[in-house]
Write a structure and sequence with these properties.
The chain is an all-alpha fold and 425 residues long. 79% of the residues lie in helices and 0% in strands. The chain contains 17 helices and no strands. The longest helix has 33 residues, at 109-141.
């Protein structure tokens, strides 16, 4: 476990507050363009292709994860990582501004689809370039036993703002004065207005110098070292197997809203209701998950997270089966999907802890960029593969997709049972 914190308690508090503001403002921004709901809904208005619809969320997540092993040799030799975060922040803001302009000005669906996927990919890749710097700065400025609360407070205040974001989404998409797709252009512009102060707050953190790998490491050498870790570090290998199964289980998440729209007949403004439901559940469960992580460790958090994700997929599957057996009709049908988004929101804070805190405690400080880069790149590949959810729906229907997700969550739970708790090692 990496417990090396050399900054003063006053500086820890300052970093904690700036980091919480960064997380809360970014959570508000992300909910305005929420990929599984808002962006997926947006693309479903431009095309009927389940493949393209299902790619939106995985492509965004993969853009964040994939590049990290490739830039880890450079980041590993930097005593301070904040300059790389700053450069990525500029690229992210520019991409979203260009995307807002494209959605406002371009009227041809095919051209707008192409512009969206290009600019969205650039924005998410830039986020991935910032990812290693973000977690390294957090590890150096926030003590291990406060990180659970750190991420929980970020999500708590972000959840409060996210409810406002859900209301904004619902109002804008239902507003008679803004026709499709210009209402989405305004959402993308609002995203920039929230994301820029968020990134500025994180840049204001005074990062202390950290451990570096002294010798110059080429990309080939880094990849060989990554392969060595996978072969010889059994704990890391099991951790990665669990994370990969959970990432692949995310294949179902974008299609919860697609099912509600295509089968239950949910109207445009209903996306805001689903969004507020999920955010409200996150809000209620943020601090309990954080306290659980701080007091009991992240192994238990991961075990419960895998069970919760599997339960969400099973509830969605039950909704599909009930719809087929009983064939209900009425304007109230879209509200039947609310429990799915409620469960998804309740489990979501635990995924943040599983994705970050566990690994930060497992790995040594000097090798953190290598472990994080390898982990996130492998997760990026799995997330990109989960974009095949549209193909699964075409072949097996929504029931087959949700059943597959539940099975992957069960597999992740079984692997997680063999992981140690780093604080007891």
């Amino acid at each position: 476990m990496d417990t090396e914190i050399t900054i003063s308690p006053r500086e820890v508090r300052r970093s904690f507050l700036l980091g919480v503001f960064n997380g809360a403002a970014f959570e508000f921004a992300e909910r305005l363009i929420d990929p599984p709901l808002v962006l997926t809904w947006f693309i479903s208005r431009l095309t009927s292709s389940n493949l393209l619809i299902g790619l939106v969320t995985p492509l965004g997540d993969a853009g964040w994860f994939l590049p990290q092993i490739f830039i880890s040799p450079l980041v590993q030799r930097m005593g301070r990582k904040m300059p790389s975060y700053t450069a990525a922040a500029v690229a992210r803001a520019a991409s979203w501004l260009l995307l807002a302009a494209a959605v406002w000005l371009v009227s041809r669906p095919g051209l707008l689809l192409a512009a969206f996927f290009v600019l969205y990919s650039v924005a998410r890749l830039a986020a991935g370039l910032a990812g290693l710097a973000f977690f390294d700065v957090v590890a150096k400025t926030i003590p291990a036993r406060r990180r659970g609360s750190f991420f929980a407070w970020r999500l708590l205040f972000g959840g409060l703002l996210g409810i406002v974001a859900g209301w904004i989404v619902s109002m804008l998409l239902d507003a008679p004065g803004f026709t499709f797709p210009r209402s989405y252009a305004l959402l993308f512009l609002l995203y920039c207005a929230a994301a820029v102060p968020a990134m500025a707050a994180f840049i204001a953190i005074r990062e202390p110098p950290g451990k570096t790998v002294g010798e110059r490491v080429t990309l080939g050498q880094q990849l060989r070292r990554a392969g060595y870790l996978l072969r010889h570090d059994a704990v890391f290998r099991r951790y990665m197997a669990t994370r990969l199964a959970l990432a692949l289980a995310g294949i179902a998440v974008p299609f919860y809203a697609v099912y509600a729209r295509q089968v239950l007949g949910a109207p445009e403004g209903m996306v805001g209701v689903y969004l507020m439901t999920r955010i409200g559940a996150q809000l209620l469960f943020n601090l309990p998950w954080g306290r659980l992580s701080d007091r009991c460790g992240n192994r238990l958090t991961m075990l419960l997270s895998t069970l919760g994700s599997g339960l969400t997929a099973l509830v969605a599957l039950a909704l599909v089966v009930a719809s087929v057996l009983f064939r209900p009709q009425g304007a109230w049908l879209p509200y039947l999907a609310i429990p799915v988004f409620l469960l998804d929101g309740a489990v979501r804070p635990s995924l943040v802890l599983v994705d970050s805190n566990f690994l930060l405690e497992l790995v040594p400080g000097a090798e953190r960029p290598l472990y994080l880069g390898l982990s996130n790149t492998l997760i990026g590949i799995a997330v990109l593969l989960s974009g095949m959810g549209g193909v699964v729906v075409d072949l097996c229907g929504f029931a087959g997709l949700f059943l597959l997700a539940a099975g992957l969550c069960l597999l992740a739970h079984l692997w997680a049972r063999g992981l140690p708790e780093p604080r007891r090692s």
